[in-house]
Amino acid sequence: MLTIEQLDKTYRTGDHALRQVSFVLEPGQLIGLIGPSGAGKSTLIRCVNRLVPPTGGRILFEGVDVARVGRRELRRVRRRMGMIFQEYALVERLTVMENVLSGRLGYVPFWQSLTRRFPQADVDQAFALLERVGLGDQFDKRADELSGGQRQRVGIARALQQNPELLLVDEPTASLDPKTSRQIMRLIRDVCEERQLSAIINIHDVMLAQMFVDRIIGLRAGAVVFDGPPAALDDGVLTTIYGEEDWTMMRATAVEDAAEAAERAEERMAGLR
Amino acid sequence: MPTVDRGDTRIWTRRTSREEWLRWALLFATVALFVWCWQVMTETTIWAFVWDAPVQAVDIGDRMWPPRWSYIERLWWPLWDTLNIATLGTLLGIVLAVPTAFMAARNTTPSAWLVRPVALFIIVASRSINSLIWALLLVAIIGPGVLAGIIAIGLRSIGFIGKLLYEAIEEVDESQVEAVRATGASPAQIVDYAIVPQILPAFVGISVFRWDINIRESTILGLVGAGGIGLQLQASLNVLAWPQVTLILLCILVTVIVSEWVSAQVRAAVS
């Protein structure tokens, strides 16, 4: 459904962020994009819906080359791709409902969105989605009143409100604690399964990626250095992606960290009682 | 590097000695400039008048007190005019400043090399001319009266509101804008959903603050014939009716205190 061919991006600063990136995303597939900071993960995901314009190559989405479409057509392509962000990127001063309904902006005319008179079908769907992500009773709250995990759930609902065919997910768990991270990743995987969605997920946490995706692409300095199933991701591969580091140690600490964080959270709750 | 190795101890100072000397030289130059300015300022002063000042002040104070309270009857209407000049002028300023601000902000301007410089010029031009001078020009063009005052206040407000608002627009969180853009929203929808909610508190604060300033400014517009309580002030000064001047000044004081209180309340409510 999405074919990326020889994608290249050089920023005006001369930063060569992507080098000849090519891969094919199959329908219903979840790709985890891993790599060190600055490897170009974020650039790659933003090239797909052209929030960042690529400098070379093709992005074929259902036969349309996103890199070359005109402005009107670009908006039509964008509304078919839902996007979920690292710091949630909710509009903080709008209500949860308005944030979710903003997923329909590509479909409703300006006056209708200005007066917030969305079609009843959109409103019904927004309520159903909030229910699905577990925030059914929070629709009237302002986005900045929610916790991190709740905000990311609203972010997911906003993306799904577009009825997308593809999800672009940029570091969904970077600002969340380990437990909430897993819940959010599980939610993303579940909604993708329910709707037969494909997704590209940027994720710096290798263990979390292995747990929840079907396929992993490793980026290093803007180039693809690994493309395969999570099981094939051994210490040798991780070393090519991230450089020299004791991977067995890291795995052990990651598990410990998670356990410790859970314990600490429990203690804090106990303190409140 | 502000470190000096002396034997095996490494001495760290905040600045190098060169920087230190430069700072002292700058301080000395500032003091010298101040002394020189003082000299220029006092060159043409007639000291006899200055020494006489306390006596004169007491004399005027004597004639100003008590205020002529009965004169208030003739102040209500000009006071109402003054409020109207300030309020309508601010509204006019807002209507003109909002589009200017969006054209001037780097992230919303339709064209950075054509429209933006024009918008910035409008803002600078409006800011560089005082309301009183705008009023003077407008009284000459459209004749004396409240209308000239309203337009003068409006023109002066464009620069103030426009500048602060475009700075607020440039400071919005881009990730929220990016998220709304990613849904396939049109440019107008992006402004409505991602930018307006972020700048709304700043916008309300700026507008009310300008209204507050405009109340103060509109009290003197009458001096050049642009309506409001300044007309009465001018008339009273001309006939040396000091008790009336006192009452007018008191009225202005109370109005300004009230407007400042209102503006503080509104700004606290939206933050």
Key descriptive features of the protein:
heterodimer, A: 273 residues, alpha/beta, four-stranded antiparallel beta sheet, 10 helices, 10 strands, 21% strand, B: 271 residues, mainly alpha, MetI-like fold, two-stranded antiparallel sheet, 2 strands
What is the topological layout?
The complex is a heterodimer of chains A (273) and B (271).
Chain A: E1 2-10, E2 16-25, E3 30-34, H1 41-48, E4 56-61, E5 64-65, H2 71-78, E6 81-84, H3 96-101, H4 110-114, H5 120-132, H6 148-161, E7 166-170, H7 178-195, E8 198-202, H8 206-212, E9 215-220, E10 223-228, H9 235-242, H10 247-272
Parallel strand pairs in A: 3-8, 3-9, 6-7, 7-8
Antiparallel strand pairs in A: 1-2, 1-4, 4-5, 9-10
Chain B: E1 3-6, E2 9-12, H1 17-43, H2 47-64, H3 76-104, H4 115-128, H5 131-142, H6 146-170, H7 174-182, H8 187-218, H9 229-238, H10 242-270
Antiparallel strand pairs in B: 1-2
Helix pairs in contact in B: 3-4, 3-6, 3-8, 3-9, 4-6, 5-6, 6-8, 7-8, 8-10, 9-10
**What's the rounded overall pLDDT mean of chain A?**
87
Low-confidence segments of chain B: none
Helix-and-strand structural type of chain A: alpha/beta
Proportion of residues in extended strands of chain A: 15-25%
Number of beta-strand segments of chain A: 10
Strand order of the largest sheet of chain A: 6-7-8-3-9-10
Structure in words:
- The complex is a heterodimer of chains A (273) and B (271).
- Chain A is α/β, with parallel strands linked by helices.
- In chain A, 41% of the residues lie in helices and 21% in strands.
- Chain A has helices at residues 41-48, 71-78, 96-101, 110-114, 120-132, 148-161, 178-195, 206-212, 235-242, 247-272, and strands at residues 2-10, 16-25, 30-34, 56-61, 64-65, 81-84, 166-170, 198-202, 215-220, 223-228.
- A six-stranded mixed sheet of chain A has the order 6-7-8-3-9-10, with helices on both faces. In chain A, strands 2-1-4-5 form a four-stranded antiparallel sheet, covered by helices on one side.
- In chain A, helix 5 (120-132) packs antiparallel against helix 6 (148-161) and helix 6 (148-161) packs parallel to helix 7 (178-195).
- The model of chain A has no long low-confidence stretch (mean pLDDT 87).
- Chain B has helices spanning 17-43, 47-64, 76-104, 115-128, 131-142, 146-170, 174-182, 187-218, 229-238, 242-270, and strands at residues 3-6, 9-12.
- In chain B, strand 1 (3-6) and strand 2 form a beta hairpin.
- In chain B, helix 3 runs antiparallel to helix 8, helix 6 (146-170) packs across helix 8 and helix 9 (229-238) packs antiparallel against helix 10.
- The two termini of chain B are 45 Å apart.
- The mean pLDDT of chain B is 89.
- Classes of the chains: A alpha/beta (273), B mainly alpha (271).
- The interface between A and B is medium-sized, with 32 and 21 residues.
